[in-house]
Amino acid sequence: MRHPIFLAALAGCAMTLSGCMGNNSDAEVARAMKSVNAVDETNLTDIMLTVADPNEAVTYFTRLSNDHPDRIDAKRGLAKSLVRAQKPVQAVKVWQEVIAMPGATNDDRVSMAEAQIRSNDWSGAKATLDTVPPTHETYDRYRLEAMVADSEKKWKKADSFYETAAGLTTKPAGIYNNWGFSKLSRGDAAGAEKLFKEALTYDPTRFTTKNNLVLARASQGKYDLPVIDMTQTERAQLLYTAGLAAVKRGDVNIGKTLLQDAIDTNPQYFAEADRALKALDQGSSSALKG
């Protein structure tokens, strides 16, 4: 189905084309046809990079790149589509081609670093980011710098990069969530809790952050659910998370109570919680702790 803006743009060009034909000028007709094609491709490219199926986008940009091997925008589109299609290794190869082309930008290098991180090439990502001048201060650049610093356990650098990234976007929920998870992974559960709460002030619907917040609290022995917006199904899932965390900390009885609460709260049959509770009743808490 065509995008509404796309149809409107084409309609305008069609009117222009009709007028040109009325004047019977081959040159004007050719120019109008070129305009139609340009609008068609521009809008289709935007659609392919956003709402289109990622694999369809890969096919589209592969064909466009093959037809126009010197067009850097076609290569960019292919690289971005490969990332969306969860093919980061292939995306890195295409980004390398982009960077070698005239017109390559620092944003292209940052995008390649992200693809390298997605393909678990942390050293490659670091090397790529090192080629980006410090004057290129963007949210994505510092977000990736923070992740690389995390991978190297350079906590002070990571905290600095996370803080900078958060200040460069109007939607910092994701970066605060990542920063909180970083704190949690290094054993600072209290610090993680504060960051997850901060993330939820910007996006109170993000369930991943809610779950991380419950994990951070449970790591401190705080098993009651935080006062946040949640649906009944989410409440059941969060009770389940708290229950498993309690068992892993050795608070088995508390964990059993929380799992039972999760089963009772869920509006539908909660298979995972039910299996976990049965395992505990049968004395298999060691398996859950693993």
TrEMBL record:
InterPro entries: TPR-like_helical_dom_sf, TPR_rpt. Keywords: TPR repeat. TPR repeats lie at residues 173-206. This is Flp pilus assembly protein TadD, contains TPR repeats. PROSITE patterns: PROKAR_LIPOPROTEIN, TPR. Gene3D superfamilies: Tetratricopeptide repeat domain. It comes from the Bacteria.
